[in-house]
Specification:
Elements: E1 13-16, H1 26-41, E2 45-50, H2 62-72, E3 82-83, H3 88-100, E4 104-107, H4 111-114, E5 146-149, H5 155-158, E6 159-164, E7 168-173, H6 174-177, E8 182-184, H7 192-202, E9 207-211, H8 218-228, E10 234-238, E11 240-242, H9 262-272, H10 287-297, E12 308-310
Parallel strand pairs: 1-2, 2-3, 9-10, 11-12
Antiparallel strand pairs: 4-5, 5-8, 6-7
Helix pairs in contact: 1-9, 1-10, 3-7, 7-8
Length: 316
């Protein structure tokens, strides 16, 4: 349920939503710290959601390790931890809403068949609409069916414009750059784009703070929000951390897990985000001292307005 302030406006609510595919790393810490401090500095709520909608990629024990690391680093969240694996009924209801309006359609195309499609401005293959008017005869015997949302061909309807709180005005023509994208996969799992939209709305999230690597998917989420009649949160996409090879820190690039000692890593993440340090030396002397400052001193305007930055070489 969405909580509201005394003036009736929705209270600021942020979230951190890691996938349980491995331990938290420095890139994860940046995202968690930025989203948490943005919410706390505004007097708002901060939620933790485990994005395990892609069940085959989840690793045993990863969720408990993530939550333990957040607690060790001094993060405190509001309310119980949400899990996408427990919310599939909400996603199914959203899909049915779209189906009832003929806003989605079944697709029997394979990834290999789409591999030769035109590449959009963002580097993704643009779905050519093969099954948009019905599954072709030569593909009807296939058991698997994905569901795709229909993107209007008219740029006036397919173009999504929004202002990112850090990156400024953004615009994407979904018909030209993405095409009809998947909202439920052929294996029956719901796509991230649909799940995250439903979750943010159901949890009353008003402000999404996350890495700039997700900026390109935001227009898809806004399109789905409008199609489902859901509110659009304010978005802020901060710089992502790069390793020595110039790749984004991630579980896929085998980024090192967060060190056991929280203070050096917290301070390195705070500096990475361009945030103000108290005068004098010896700060912070404790995790509590770090958080008492960070929760009130965070200034989004001081975030580096770039998409990526090198991670510090040593903070542990």
């Amino acid at each position: 349920m969405n909580s509201r302030g005394t003036d009736g406006a929705a209270r600021h609510c942020g979230r951190f939503a890691p996938s349980p595919t491995g331990p938290l790393h420095f890139g994860s810490l940046i995202a968690a710290l930025a989203s948490c401090c943005d919410a706390r500095a505004a007097g708002g709520r901060w939620l933790v959601r485990i994005e395990d909608v892609d069940a085959p990629r989840a690793r045993r024990g990863a969720e408990s390790a993530i939550l333990a690391a957040l607690e060790r680093y001094g993060f405190a969240w509001d309310g119980p931890v949400a899990r996408q694996s427990e919310r599939t009924g909400l996603y199914a209801a959203a899909l049915e809403q779209l189906r009832s309006r003929n806003a989605v359609y079944a697709c029997a195309c394979t990834r290999r068949e789409n591999a030769s499609a035109t590449v959009g401005a963002g580097g993704e293959r643009v779905y050519p609409g093969t099954c948009r008017d019905g599954i072709p005869q030569d593909r009807r015997a296939r058991a698997g069916r994905a569901w795709r949302i229909r993107i209007p061909p008219d740029p006036a309807e397919s173009t999504v414009n929004f202002r990112d709180r850090l990156q400024g005005p953004q615009s994407q023509d979904l018909a030209r750059d993405v095409g009809d994208f998947v909202v439920r996969r052929a294996d029956g799992l719901f796509a991230y784009q649909l799940a995250v939209v439903v979750d943010d709305a159901a949890q009353g999230v008003t402000h999404v703070v996350r890495g700039a690597d997700l900026l390109a998917s935001t227009p898809r989420q806004i399109f789905l929000q409008r199609a489902l009649g859901l509110a659009t949160p304010a978005y802020l996409h901060h710089a992502v951390a790069l390793d020595r090879a110039g790749d984004k820190l991630s579980k896929q690039t085998r980024a090192a897990p967060l060190p056991d000692d929280p203070l050096p890593a917290l301070l390195a993440a705070w500096r990475f985000l361009g945030q103000p340090l108290p005068a004098g030396s010896g700060w912070p002397a404790s995790i509590a001292e770090f958080w008492s400052h960070a929760a009130t001193a965070f200034e989004p305007a001081r975030l580096p307005p770039v998409a990526q930055l090198p991670a510090p070489l040593d903070f542990g």
